[in-house]
Each structure stands twice: as C-alpha cells, then as structure tokens.
Amino acid sequence: MHVLRVTGDGEVWICLYFIYMAAFSARRQLGNVGEDVACKYLTSKGFVIVERNHLKPWGEIDIVARVGDIYRFVEVKTISRENGGGGFARNMTAEDHIHPAKLQKLVRTVEIYMANLAGDFDYQIDVVTVELDTSTRRARCKLYEQVL
Question: How many domains does the chain have?
C-alpha cells in the first residue's frame, strides 16, 4: 500500500516534471529563434555580434555586440502570437515582458563584463523585441536604444 502511494505520487511528479520541461523547452526554443532573428536584424543595422548568451551565475547577456568602439548589450524579448494563448496573454506585447528587475540584473552583469575587458570602452544597454508569426514565417523587430 505504501509503495503504491509513493509510486502514484512519483508518477504525478514525473508527469508534472515532463509537462514543465516541455513548456520550458518550448519557451527556450522560442527564445533561441528570437535571438537568431535579433542577431540578423542587428547585423543589418551595422552591429557586429561579439558574443551570444554570455551566461554567468549572477546573470545573462543575450547579445554582446559592437558598433564602432561602443559595446552594445542587448536583451531580447520574443513573443509568438501562436504561442500566446487566448485572453489576456494574446493582448500582451514583447515589451510587456521587459521587467525592471531583469534589467537591473543585466546592468550588474554588464558592469562585470566591462570591468574584465582590457581597455576603456563606452557601452550602452539596448532591448530588441521580436514578434514572431510562425504561420507566415515573418518577424517584426524593434530596437530600443539606451534603455538604462
């Protein structure tokens, strides 16, 4: 009896875990596509991509780029209308997913990144929003410069 109860709980946990991982994986895939699109968009605007997904324990920088001698640290926010769900989520924009706490964490990560560079460079923090329409395979990007 006890073993069946533990197994039942385990099965529920395993099912919830796989549902969570599938949702996480889909969200990560959407983010990866958005970052690919954002890199192409930024390159078309004269940015040189230096690094992607600069990940440290204290934070992540989606895209590190340069325009001339200025480092540009870019946060990418992606939304897909097909994955947006109904109701309230359908009315949200990529801009709605830009949170001050995330940007503050980004600032700390950028400051540490800049401190580790040899040389004295100017930098700024930008945001690119990407709205994907997978049915037409089109994306709309918008660059917000010097958000902080």
Answer: 1
CB 113 within 8 A of CB 59: no
Rounded alpha-carbon distances, angstroms, from residue 40 to 98, 119, 132: 21, 28, 14
pLDDT at 45: 94
CB hemisphere CA count around 48 (13 angstroms): 7
Which of 9, 108, 92, 14 is CA-nearest to residue 58?
Answer: 108
Q: Provide the residue range defining the domain that includes 129.
A: 2-144
Per run of 10 residues, the mean pLDDT along the chain (length 148 residues) is 36 43 66 88 95 90 95 92 52 76 89 90 93 82 90
pLDDT at 82: 64
Read off the CATH number of the domain in which 114 is found.
3.40.1350.10
Percentages (nearest 5) of helix, strand, coil residues in the chain: 45, 30, 25
* pTM for the structure as a whole: 0.77
**For every residue of 9-70, which 3-state class applies, written as one string?**
HHHHHHHHHHHHHHHHHHHHHHHHHHHHHHHHHHHHCCCEEEEEEEEECCEEEEEEEEECCE
Residues comprising the chain, all counted: 148
